[in-house]
Structure prediction request, 443 residues.
Amino acid sequence: MSRGLPRTVEQFMAYACAMEVEACERYAELAELMDTHHNREVAELFAKLARIEGKHRDQIMRQMGWTTPPATASLRWETPEGPETTDYGDLHYLMTPYHALKLAEHNERRAAEFFERLAAARLPAAVRESAAEMAAEEREHVRLIEEWLARFPPPEPGWDEDPDPPAVAD
Amino acid sequence: MSEALTHTDFKSDIKPVWCPGCGDFGVVNALTKALAKMELRPENVAVVSGIGCSSRIPAYTTCYGFHGVHGRALAVGTGLKIARPDLTVIVTGGDGDGYSIGGNHFLHACRRNVDMTYIVMDNRVYGMTKGQASPTTEPDWDSKLSPDGTGLREFQPLVIALSAGANFIARAFTGDPNGLADVIVQAVRHPGFSFIEVLSPCVTFRPEQRDWKKLVKPDAVKPTADIARAARRMLRDTGFDLGVLYAGTRSPYAPRGPRAQRDVRELEARFAL
Prediction:
């Protein structure tokens, strides 16, 4: 949950929009860096996730009649970054689409929990209602990613073994 | 009035070549956010670095950049700030560059207290040259290049910076780019030499550092101007307490006397090329 709870639907949607903006930017960045490391399959997947988050951002902005995302200078998450943002530290250059989707699933779950907490908080009814709607949407995203994940079985142990590792060999 | 910039305006089109998972990505993210938050413009900021993985950072921003000589980033940054006090000077680098090759410059930059910010991305290893022990590597870190560890005591950058005269000392973590951005803002705004030790995991040569996110203690300390208290804090903490550990009151260095007013063109005229 973020510090400074939203008291109006507008404030609440600004949080939701900020979450999507941050997630979209991060996925796009991760796509580029996986591409730099020639892991094209995962790069494409992150690029696709960036497009999906971008659509969510645009949807919120359309709904609110915003032409640009609102300023969020005063916004702070209690977690280091937004609930839907992938931690840079969770990447591996040999990761597979399975790993990328597991990260996405984790992010969507965290976002759903974030909105569920807001929906249960002592906030104006309109804000709680909007939070409950967003929570339901995020739960639907979790379900969609679970379906997507079913196409990628977990990789065999040793997926991160590199026959030509960057570390100096014996 | 010029249009407000966002953090993306401070990111260049050059794609970082750091390993996926590297902490240094968090520093670019935080630095660009901090610059946007301070409403600076790229042409008014210079990012100077030495050599090493983390020293690639100037290329990843749209600010003026100087990818300098190994260990000499602070010397370049000092000269630049004295010649162009109007610029915001951010010096960046790693633990090897800053504490070993540039160790002496580090001491004297703290002592001189020129108004600039030094961000050290400490991963306790020489990553670019494939995993040698650095000054901050734990004595018992067993690796192919240091079997059974080096047995050498780690360099203590924070308390050394304090005793040498740094005016602002903080520790931050790359896993919290927003928190790091706030610390960078405070450091840049604090007069004098500001030093930020950033815990930045090297997931390739120190994969165990992925656990740092479980060890760090955010907002563990509040700033103090009491040097003795700050020293006790730095000597006793776990190395994972995050926050501003010291914010002193020393006046920053400023050139004095008639030389300080000398025009650059006048100086240039004295050089025969």
Notes: Residues 22-269 of chain B form a domain with the Rossmann fold fold (CATH 3.40.50.970). The first strand of chain B starts at residue 45 and ends at 49. The mean pLDDT of chain B is 94. Chain B touches chain A at residues 8, 15-23, 25-26, 29, 37, 130-131, 144-145, 174-179, 201, 203-205, 210, 213, 218 (CB under 8 Å).
